[in-house]
Specification:
Helices cover 37% and strands 23% of the residues. Strands 6-7-8-3-9-10 form a six-stranded mixed sheet, with helices on both faces. A four-stranded antiparallel sheet has the order 2-1-4-5. It is an alpha/beta fold and 277 residues long. The protein contains ten helices and ten strands.
Length: 277
């Protein structure tokens, strides 16, 4: 029997519900960010979540990570309920966000050693593991002691991934981990993701704006639109939803456009613009 890393059943999350008297001019409109979403992720699977900005991708990841509570439905991580058993869930997962936070005056090594202490790692083991992960992600040893504020956003994102991997999580939640990275860095991170699954059987849930990345990495993909799942299948299964045209096989981007009516390219450019500011 397959082990389920994530089991989500009719998960719903609202924002903006009126729960107290509003100031004059304020809106009481309730927004449904995640709307009765159901899916499962098998242990060891790389599961992709695609969708335009505002589709509910990041909210869904925060619900799984216990950072938000569902208003309805149920989420379980390796059998543990995210509402009733949050501590057990947190011990099993780690999360990388597109907006990773650091002590900017400290170096990658200092930031990661701090994180290692929180995870209860011994200093010598932590240093060895930190150096191994950073080098595998393409950071040179001379940068290990450089202040984070002097590093590019791409290098900072690699350090965020390294921090998440220190705890060797059973479930890794990657929320647009390669946004803003140069092509070489993006390829290094993608290769490392595949190695994690192959060598450590890590289960990975990935959101991305990169259709080629999703096609190359994911075993199955859910496409979100308006907080609901518009389609869920393997990359090849999703492509079969769109008829071939102009003498070529459909791409994931064409599937996405047909299901959502929106282009990811505009969203990706908007994210890149925010990351440069």
């Amino acid at each position: 029997m397959e082990t389920l890393a994530i089991h989500a059943q009719q998960v719903t999350k609202y924002f903006g519900a009126r729960t107290w008297p509003l100031r004059r001019g304020a809106s009481a409109k309730r927004v449904t960010a995640v709307d009765a979403v159901s899916f499962h992720v098998v242990a060891g699977e790389i599961f992709g979540v695609l969708g335009p900005n505002g589709s509910g991708k990041s909210t869904l990841i925060r619900l799984i990570a216990t950072l938000l509570l569902p208003d309805d439905g149920e989420v379980r991580v390796f059998g543990y309920d995210v509402v009733r058993q949050p501590m057990q869930v947190r011990r099993l997962l780690n999360r990388v966000s597109v907006e990773a936070a650091f002590f900017k005056k400290l170096s990658p090594l200092e930031n990661l050693m701090y994180g290692a202490r929180l995870y209860g790692l011994e200093a010598d083991e932590a240093r060895r593991r930190i150096a191994q992960i950073l080098e595998r992600l393409g950071l040179e040893q001379r940068t290990f002691g450089q202040p984070m504020e002097e590093m590019s956003r791409g290098m900072q994102q690699k350090v965020a991934i390294a921090r998440a991997l220190l705890s060797r999580p059973a479930l890794l939640l990657l929320d647009e981990p390669t946004t803003g990275l140069d092509p070489r860095s993006k390829r290094e991170v993608q290769t490392f993701i595949l190695e994690l699954r192959r060598e450590h059987a890590t289960t990975i849930l990935l959101t991305t704006h990169d259709m080629l990345e999703a096609d190359a990495l994911c075993d199955r993909i859910a496409i979100l639109e308006g907080g609901r799942i518009a389609a869920l299948d393997t990359p090849e299964g999703l492509k079969r939803l769109v008829a071939a045209g102009n003498g070529h096989r459909p791409t994931l981007e064409e599937v996405f456009l047909q299901l959502t009516g929106k282009a990811l390219a505009a969203d990706a450019e908007a994210e890149a613009g925010r990351s440069e500011r």
